Amino acid sequence: xxxxxxxxxxxxxxxxxxxxxxxxxxxxxxxxxxxxxxxxxxxxxxxxxxxxxxxxxxxxxxxxxxxxxxxxxxxxxxxxxxxxxxxxxxxxxxxxxxxxxxxxxxxxxxxxxxxxxxxxxxxxxxxxxxxxxxxxxxxxxxxxxxxxxxxxxxxx
Amino acid sequence: xxxxxxxxxxxxxxxxxxxxxxxxxxxxxxxxxxxxxxxxxxxxxxxxxxxxxxxxxxxxxxxxxxxxxxxxxxxxxxxxxxxxxxxxxxxxxxxxxxxxxxxxxxxxxxxxxxxxxxxxxxxxxxxxxxxxxxxxxxxxxxxxxxxxxxxxxxxx
Amino acid sequence: xxxxxxxxxxxxxxxxxxxxxxxxxxxxxxxxxxxxxxxxxxxxxxxxxxxxxxxxxxxxxxxxxxxxxxxxxxxxxxxxxxxxxxxxxxxxxxxxxxxxxxxxxxxxxxxxxxxxxxxxxxxxxxxxxxxxxxxxxxxxxxxxxxxxxxxxxxxx
Amino acid sequence: xxxxxxxxxxxxxxxxxxxxxxxxxxxxxxxxxxxxxxxxxxxxxxxxxxxxxxxxxxxxxxxxxxxxxxxxxxxxxxxxxxxxxxxxxxxxxxxxxxxxxxxxxxxxxxxxxxxxxxxxxxxxxxxxxxxxxxxxxxxxxxxxxxxxxxxxxxxx
Amino acid sequence: xxxxxxxxxxxxxxxxxxxxxxxxxxxxxxxxxxxxxxxxxxxxxxxxxxxxxxxxxxxxxxxxxxxxxxxxxxxxxxxxxxxxxxxxxxxxxxxxxxxxxxxxxxxxxxxxxxxxxxxxxxxxxxxxxxxxxxxxxxxxxxxxxxxxxxxxxxxx
Amino acid sequence: xxxxxxxxxxxxxxxxxxxxxxxxxxxxxxxxxxxxxxxxxxxxxxxxxxxxxxxxxxxxxxxxxxxxxxxxxxxxxxxxxxxxxxxxxxxxxxxxxxxxxxxxxxxxxxxxxxxxxxxxxxxxxxxxxxxxxxxxxxxxxxxxxxxxxxxxxxxx
Amino acid sequence: xxxxxxxxxxxxxxxxxxxxxxxxxxxxxxxxxxxxxxxxxxxxxxxxxxxxxxxxxxxxxxxxxxxxxxxxxxxxxxxxxxxxxxxxxxxxxxxxxxxxxxxxxxxxxxxxxxxxxxxxxxxxxxxxxxxxxxxxxxxxxxxxxxxxxxxxxxxx
Amino acid sequence: xxxxxxxxxxxxxxxxxxxxxxxxxxxxxxxxxxxxxxxxxxxxxxxxxxxxxxxxxxxxxxxxxxxxxxxxxxxxxxxxxxxxxxxxxxxxxxxxxxxxxxxxxxxxxxxxxxxxxxxxxxxxxxxxxxxxxxxxxxxxxxxxxxxxxxxxxxxx
Amino acid sequence: xxxxxxxxxxxxxxxxxxxxxxxxxxxxxxxxxxxxxxxxxxxxxxxxxxxxxxxxxxxxxxxxxxxxxxxxxxxxxxxxxxxxxxxxxxxxxxxxxxxxxxxxxxxxxxxxxxxxxxxxxxxxxxxxxxxxxxxxxxxxxxxxxxxxxxxxxxxx
Amino acid sequence: xxxxxxxxxxxxxxxxxxxxxxxxxxxxxxxxxxxxxxxxxxxxxxxxxxxxxxxxxxxxxxxxxxxxxxxxxxxxxxxxxxxxxxxxxxxxxxxxxxxxxxxxxxxxxxxxxxxxxxxxxxxxxxxxxxxxxxxxxxxxxxxxxxxxxxxxxxxx
Lengths: 156, 156, 156, 156, 156, 156, 156, 156, 156, 156
Ligand SMILES: [Ca+2]
Ligand SMILES: [Ca+2]
Ligand SMILES: [Ca+2]
Ligand SMILES: [Ca+2]
Ligand SMILES: [Ca+2]
Ligand SMILES: [Ca+2]
Ligand SMILES: [Ca+2]
Ligand SMILES: [Ca+2]
Ligand SMILES: [Ca+2]
Ligand SMILES: [Ca+2]
Ligand SMILES: [Ca+2]
Ligand SMILES: [Ca+2]
Ligand SMILES: [Ca+2]
Ligand SMILES: [Ca+2]
Ligand SMILES: [Ca+2]
Ligand SMILES: [Ca+2]
What we know:
Chains A, B, C, D, E, F, G, H, I, J: InterPro entries: GTP-CH-I_C/QueF, NADPH_dep_7-cyano-7-deazaG_red, QueF, QueF_type1. Ten copies of one chain form a homodecamer. By secondary structure, the first copy, chain A, is an alpha+beta fold. Chain A is about 25% helix and about 30% strand. Chain A has helices spanning about 70-80, 90-105, 135-145, and strands at about 25, 35-45, 55-65, 65-70, 105-115, 120-130. The site of one calcium ion (CA) has 3 residues of chain B, from loops.
C-alpha cells in the first residue's frame, strides 16, 4: 500500500479534469472473478455549450484484473470534472476509458443518471470486456440486458 | 456542433406535430456500443376521438449509430404532440419511426406509460434493431424480456 | 342535478382559459362542515415569457358552503389553462379566486406542485376562509401549519 | 356476544344499501377514551348519473361510547353500497350518519379516497363530535388539522 | 374507427359476464411486433361458493396481430364480472381466452393480483402464444421467467 | 439489575396470558421526562369467537416514572397472548392496563395495527396519563392528535 | 366442489402440524400451463431448540397438474405449524413436499422470508419440477435465477 | 417584467458568491398571504477548511411581501456558491439573509439537507418573520414545530 | 477555528467512551434561533448485560447558544461508544447530557432508533430546554408532540 | 444437534477475527438443491489504513452440500470483524472463503453494501461454485447477471 498517496493523508482538491490523480493497488484475489461497485451521487460537470452545471449519480461496476482503483483517488478524479465541460455521454465514455487505461480490468461498466434539463433527463451507459476473453461476451450480454426494469421517473 | 440551432439559443415552441424540429449531432464514440436513455415525464397529446388531453411519461433508449438526437430538439419534438390527436400506440410507434429515420440507430426502444382513462391505463412499448445485424436479434431478445417485473398500479 | 351540462354527456374541450365552464350543484349536507379534496395530476399551462409548457399536480381542498363545484366541469376548467400563459403563483391564485367566486365556500386551499425548470421546482400554496367567520381563522391556522413535513425532492 | 349474528356464521351478501345489517356489541372499556380505526380498501358503489362503478378506500376512526360496531357487520354494510348509486361526498356522509345512529359514538370521522374519474380523484372527509361535550370541540380541532401533509398523487 | 360503439358515446353498464361487449379496431402497425399493456385496478367479481365480493388488479399485456381490443370496451367487459361468480384462476383464464378469441393476438398474458381472503392472497397468471409461431416459444419463455422478483406482501 | 431474571439467561416460553412474567428495573433518569418506544411486529393472539389466529404490530410508547419495563420480559408477556383469545380492542387495553399496573408510568400509549379479516383491518389505540398531573392533559392532547396523517392501506 | 369441507363452512383451528387438513379441487384448465401464487404473511412456528416463536411470510408459486390446493385448507395447514417446532429451512422443505404429495404439480417453489433472530434474518427457498418433464429443467432454471435482485434489508 | 434580465435570455454562469445576481418582480397578489416554495436539489459549495465539495438539497419557503424573487436569478445565485467556501450552517443563514434583504418578505425559511461527511449528515434550518407583525410569531411557531416527523436516514 | 484539532487532520480513533474528544466552535449567528440536525446511522455500542453489540441510528437536533459542536469531533465521540456497555435509554440520555455540558445549547433533543433484539426494537427520545427560558417550554411542547406519526416497523 | 455450542446457550462475544467460532449442522435435505440466504445488516469492521469503523449490510446466499452453517455461530463470526482491519473487498472474499472451507457448499455468494466514505459507497460481490459440477457454471451465470437492476443511491 506504500504507493497510495491519498488515503489517510491531507488532500488538495483540483477541479479540472485530471485522470493523473487516479491510483491503483494490487488485487489480492486475482484468481477469482468478483465485482466491485462504486456508487457516486456527488458528480457534477459543466455543459460544454452553455457552461451550466450538470449533476449526476455515477455507478461504476467492474471485475478487477491485477490492479484495482483506490477509492479516494477515484473521488478526486470524479471531483476533477467539476469545472470541466462535456456532454453527458462523453463524461461516461471518458470515465470508462480512463479506468480501463488505469486498471486494465476484465470488465467494466459505467452508468450515469443525470438530473433533467428541459424536462428530460439523460442516462448514458457504457461497458467493456477485455477483447479475446469471455469478458468480451459478458459486455455484449450485459448490453443486451441493460435496464430491462427501468425506474419510474417523475422529475420530483 | 455548429449546426445545432436549439441548444443555448432562444426557442419558439410549436404544438403541432413536427418531426422537422429534430436535429442530430455526431456520435463521438461510434466504435463502442452504448446506451443513451431519455426520461420524458412531460408528454401530452390529444385523444383523436374525443379531443381530450392524454398524459404520459415516455422512456426512449437507444444504441447510437453515427448520429445522435440532440436533446433540446427532442424536447421540442415531444412538445409538438401537444395539440396533435393520436392513439397511445400510434404516438409510441410514430416517435420510434421518426427517430429511426432521423438517426439510423443500431437499436431503439420507446415505452409510454399513460395516465388512466376509464380506470385503465395503457402502456405501449415498441422496439427496433437494424436489419441484418446483431441488433435485429437484440430487438427480439428485449421484446421477449419486456416488463417481466411490472410495477404495481393503484391509480392513486 | 338537471342543470349539470357536462357529466354523462359529450364534451367539447377548450384550451383557452375559461372560468365560464365551471358548474355547481347543491351541497346536500350544508349543516355539517366537511372536506372535499380534488387531486389533479394532469395540469399544464404555458410560461408567459418563453411560451414553454409547464406541468403540475394541483391539489384543491375546500369546505363547501351551499354550492359545490361539479368535478367534470372542474376538469374542463383545468384543461382550459392548456394554451394559457401565466406564472405558477398566478395560476394557483387564479384557480382559487375563480372557485371562491363560483361556490362561495367556507374555506378553500389550492396547492400546486410544478415540475422543475432550471433544476428548481416551485410549489405555490394559497388559501382563503370566509371573512368574519371561524373559517377566516382557519385560513391563518393552516397557513401557519403549511408543509411542515415537506416531501423529499431529487428531480428524478 | 350472544346477539351477534354475523361473526363465525354463514353469511348472505346483499348489494343494496342496507344500514339494517349493522350490529353492535358493548364497549368493555367505556371509562377510557380510545380510538378504533377501520381500514376498508374494498369499497365500491355506482355513480348516480352514469351508473358506472366507483372504487374507494374508506378509513373510519371513532372513539366509542357504550356501543361498538361489530366488524363483520360493517363489512356487510359497506358491501351493501355495491349496487347503490350515490356521489362520493354523499357516500361518506351517509356512512358517518348511519354509524352515529347505530353507535352514538363520542366522536367519529370517515375519509374516502376514491379512484380518479376524468383524471381527477376526489377524497371527501366528514367528522362529528357529540354535541355539548369536549368531543364536539375535537371535531372542529380535527377538521382544522385535516390532511395537512397530503399524499402525493400521480394516478399510477 | 366507424364500428367502435363505446368510445366517445354514452354507455350502459352491465354487470353480468358479457364477452359480447368487447370490440376491436385494426392494428395500424401489423408489420412490427410491439407490446400493449393494460393496467386495470378496478376489477371485482364474486366468490362462486360464498357470494362474497373479490377484488383484484388485472394486468393484461399482448402483442397484437391484425386486431386490437378497444380500451373502453375492455373496461365494460371487466365491469361485467361485477355480479359474476368465479374463482380467481378461472377469471384470469376466461379473460385470456375471451381476448384470444376476440383479437387472435400473437401473444397475450393476464396476471391477476387479488386481495387476501383468510390472510392469504392469490395471484394467478396465464399466458398464450400463437401455435406454430415463435410466439408459442415466447409463451414458454415468459412462463419460465414469471415473477422471479416477487413483490413484498404484508397485507397492509 | 440483580432482580432481572430473563435478560442473558435461558428462557421458558409460555403461550397463555401471563402478566406475571413482566419485570421492571429502576429508571436512572427519573428527573427528566423522556420517551421510550417499543416496536413489536411479532404479536399474535386468537379470535375469541372463531379461535382463528390474529396478527398485529404493537407500538408501545411511554414516559417512565420510577420503574421501567425490561424488554425481554415484555417480549415474553407479548408471547403469552399466543394461545389467548381476545378482541383487538381488548388486547390493546389489557396491554396498556398491565403496563400501568407494573410500572406506574407518567404516560403510556399502545397502538395495535392488525392484519385484515374480511377485507377490513382494525387499528385500536389507547392512552393514559397519570391523574392529577400534566400527563393527564397530555393523554387528551395526544388523543386529539392521534393518526392525523394515516398510512395508505391497500391490503397487499 | 362437493368434497371441499372448509370453504364457506365453520372451521376448527388446529395448531399442531397436520398435512391431513389439505384438500384439493380439480384444475379446470389442465391443458394450459399457468401460475398460481399464494402470498401468506401470517406464518408462525416455533424454534425447535429454544421453543421461541418464529415469524415469516411464505410465498408459494406453482404450475398445477390435475389437482389444485384449496386455499382455505392451505390456510389451516399453515396455521398447523403454530405450535410445531422446526428450523426455517425444514419448514420450507416440508411445506413443499406436502404440497407435492397432495397435488402432484408440474412445478412448485416455496420461499420463506423470516424475521431476524440475533440481527440476522434467514430466507430459504426450495423448488421442484416433475422428473422427466420440461418442468424439471424449469426447476434448475429458476434455481439459477433465484433472487438476483435481492430486497434491501435494514431490520426496521 | 421589463427589468428581468435572466429569464428567456442567454446566461453567463458565475461560480463565485454573488448575491447581486438576484432579481425581483412585483407580487401581483399582495393582499393575500400565500406560500411560495423552491425545491433546489442541485446545491454545491466547498468546505472552508478542506476545500472539498459539499452537496445539499435546499428548500426555501416564503410568504411574499411586495417583491418576489425571480426563479432563474435564484438558480444563478445558488450556482454562485459552487466555488465558495462556507460551513453548512453559514450557507443556510447567508441564503436566508440575502433573500430577506432582496425581497423584504413577510416570512421566510431555508432548510438544507447535506450529504454525509464522516458518516454524519447535517441539516441546518433557519427562519424569519417580519418584526412587529404576526409573521414574527409565525417564525417562532414554525421553529417550535420544525421536523417533528424526521425522515429516516440510512446513508444509502 | 484555530482550536479545532480534528477537522482536516489525521485522526486517532478511540473506542472507549470519551466525552473529552468533543470540541466546539463559535456560533456566528447567535442572534437568530436556528436548528442544526445531525443524522448518524453508524452508532454501535455494547449491551451491558450480555456484551452483545447494539446498533442504532441517532438523530440529534439542537438550537445553538454561543457554542456549536464540531461535527468531526461528534463523530469521534459517537465512535467512542463502540466498546462501551450501556442500555439504549442510557446511551441517549448520556449523549444529550454530554452535549448540554459541552455547548450549553438553548434546546437539544436526541432520538435513537435501535435495531431489534428478541423481535422488539427500542427507540428512546430525550430532550431539554434551557431552564427559565422559552426553550424550557419548547422542550415540553416537543415532548408532547413527539412521534405522533410513527414509522411502520416490520423488522425487515 | 448435540455438537452445536451456541444456540440456546450463553455466549461470549469476541471482536477479533475468529473463523473458529463457526459451527455446522447436517443438511437434512441433501438430495434437493435449495437456497439459504442470510441478511446481516449489523456488520462492522475497521479500515486497515485509518482505523476508522466501516459499516455494511452483508447478504450471504448458498446452496448447501452436506453441511450447513449454524446461524448463531455465523452471527458470532461476523461480530468477530468488529475490531479487525480489512478493506471492503477483502472482508467479502474472506467471509466467502471461510464459509467454503467450513461447509463445502455447492454454491455460495456474498454481497456487501457498505456505507459511503468520501461520498462514495462500495459494494463488493464474490461468488463460487464447486469445481467440476454444474454449480461452477452457476457461479459464472450469476456473475454475468449480477446487479442488472441496481438500487438508487442518494447517500441519504
Ligand atoms: Ca424490477
Ligand atoms: Ca420520482
Ligand atoms: Ca400507485
Ligand atoms: Ca413527514
Ligand atoms: Ca424523487
Ligand atoms: Ca403525511
Ligand atoms: Ca402514485
Ligand atoms: Ca404491503
Ligand atoms: Ca404519517
Ligand atoms: Ca399497502
Ligand atoms: Ca427486482
Ligand atoms: Ca427495511
Ligand atoms: Ca412521520
Ligand atoms: Ca436511505
Ligand atoms: Ca420495514
Ligand atoms: Ca437513498
